[in-house]
Write a structure and sequence with these properties.
302 residues, mainly beta, Beta-galactosidase, Chain A, domain 5, 6-stranded antiparallel beta sheet, 1 helix, globular
């Protein structure tokens, strides 16, 4: 089934955003891919470019308790027994506004037994000299407070060299360790002395990463920046965001069941909260009735 898609251009950047899930299908700068995209007639593979809400990452067993009530979400990652990546990545979004360099899409998370809350979402995507910017606004239009979290899911592309050769700079001093089989949170630990310490930029090599990081060191403007570069070709890409996302998930896209898709790009997912936050409560956004939450991030060519 074909869904509408919206092309925006400006400052040398071109992006294509789908009406299905508000997914970013394509992003280039001067013709160079900045993300791993997918074809117009292809179903979104591996959550490439997905928009993820009202929770990022995983909820163990799809079960959580909020305000003293137990809920059970559909398990859509059966091999790990988790509810993965929210409720809006595969539903139609409505066009709100479209110009040459910007597009805004909207959808509403309607109440259901597993998530009996009403949250209206607006996602504005724009391009310009600075890069490709996304701003996500959530409004609780219901009568009860709602748990909420959000993140994007781009696979960044530094250049044509293999991912192992790319150099990663990740200004995070803490990593969330996870269970090897289900990737569920275990404990927060310092990155120092681990394979996950990329505070000083260096090659990714053969390390496999599918972890959330926090304790991000901002720059003078209060922004966190992840940079990934391809030294052999002198190209790269950066992702920048503000304090609305104190976490970031990094994934080297190791997909043993899909060797043709493995390690094609580096997933960089600024998150408002860590995995399983509906259960742990850590950095969970609670939207009171009528309250608004905003988050944003930008992708820039280097």
């Amino acid at each position: 089934m074909n869904h509408p898609e919206y092309r925006i251009e400006g400052g040398g950047y071109t992006a294509v955003v789908l009406g299905l899930g508000a997914a970013v299908r394509e992003l280039t700068h001067e013709g160079r891919p900045l993300v791993v995209g997918f074809g117009a007639d292809e179903e979104m593979p591996n959550f490439r470019g997905a928009f993820v809400a009202p929770w990022p990452n995983r909820i163990a067993d799809g079960r959580y308790t909020f305000d003293g009530v137990d809920y059970e979400l559909p398990v859509n990652e059966p091999e790990r027994g988790t509810a993965l990546h929210g409720l809006v990545f595969d539903i139609p979004w409505t066009l709100v506004e479209h110009s040459e360099s910007a597009v805004t899409l909207g959808c509403t998370i309607e109440p259901r037994e597993a998530y009996p809350f009403t949250v209206a979402l607006h996602a504005r995507f724009s391009v310009g000299e600075e890069g490709f910017r996304s701003v996500i606004t959530a409004l609780n239009t219901g009568s009860r407070r709602a748990p909420y979290g959000v993140c994007p899911h781009p696979y960044l592309v530094a250049g044509p060299s293999p991912l192992d050769e790319w150099v990663l700079e990740l200004p995070a001093s803490t990593v969330l360790t996870v269970t090897p089989d289900r990737l569920l949170p275990v404990a927060k630990e310092p990155v120092e002395g681990t394979p996950f310490d990329f505070r000083a930029a260096h090659a990714i090599g053969d390390v496999q990463i599918d972890h959330a990081f926090t304790d991000l060191t901002p720059d003078a403007s209060g922004l966190a920046t992840v940079r990934v570069t391809d030294p052999r070709h002198g190209t790269g890409v950066a992702m920048v965001w503000d304090e609305s996302c104190p976490w970031v998930q990094i994934h080297t896209a190791d997909l043993p069941r899909k060797p043709e898709s493995t390690r094609l790009g580096l997933a960089v997912e600024p998150m408002t909260c860590p995995p399983d936050a509906f259960n742990t409560g850590e950095d969970l956004v609670v939207l009171e009735p009528g309250a608004t939450h905003r988050a944003g991030w930008m992708i820039t060519a280097l």
